[in-house]
Design brief:
Length: 143
């Protein structure tokens, strides 16, 4: 009897573990969805999660794993909320440059993002340039 209860408990534990695991590698984001995900993370104050939106081929990719590096310039937390308009174009292949309007609580301007696929149908930001009077480039930097 106890053996059956332990078997059932073990089986329930395995089922729970199996269904609770997220598989990030299976995620697919269109260009529009990636820009929206970046905006959502920014507006949620998730600066440490912003790096998930960047392509690993981006120069200084590892630097952006530290969220404090991104909490600056036009996307600094002090300028919350942020809005990126729908990018144009919204599809392509290889590396695609998209543009749109950007605004924060202080002002508005434009953005240009070089997007690159990271696996099938999973677009990520390779370079992001935000211009509001001055230009903020998120690409190759050093600490």
């Amino acid at each position: 009897m106890i053996k059956n209860i332990l078997k059932i408990a073990g089986l329930l534990l395995l089922i729970t573990l199996f269904f609770s695991c997220e598989e990030d590698s299976a995620e697919e984001y269109s260009i529009k969805e990636r820009i929206n995900a970046f905006e959502d993370d920014l507006n949620d104050g998730d600066y440490d999660d912003l790096a998930d939106n960047f392509h690993p081929d981006m120069p200084s990719y590892d630097t952006y794993q530290d969220g404090s590096v991104l909490n600056a310039g036009h996307i600094a937390e002090a300028y919350y909320p942020f809005n990126f308009s729908e990018p144009s174009p919204t599809s392509g292949s290889g590396t695609v440059t998209v543009t749109g309007t950007f605004s924060n609580s202080a002002d508005s301007g434009s953005y240009e993002a070089n997007m690159k696929e990271d696996g099938d149908d999973n677009w990520k930001i390779l370079k992001l340039v935000i211009t509001i009077g001055t230009t903020q480039t998120i690409e190759g930097i050093s600490r």
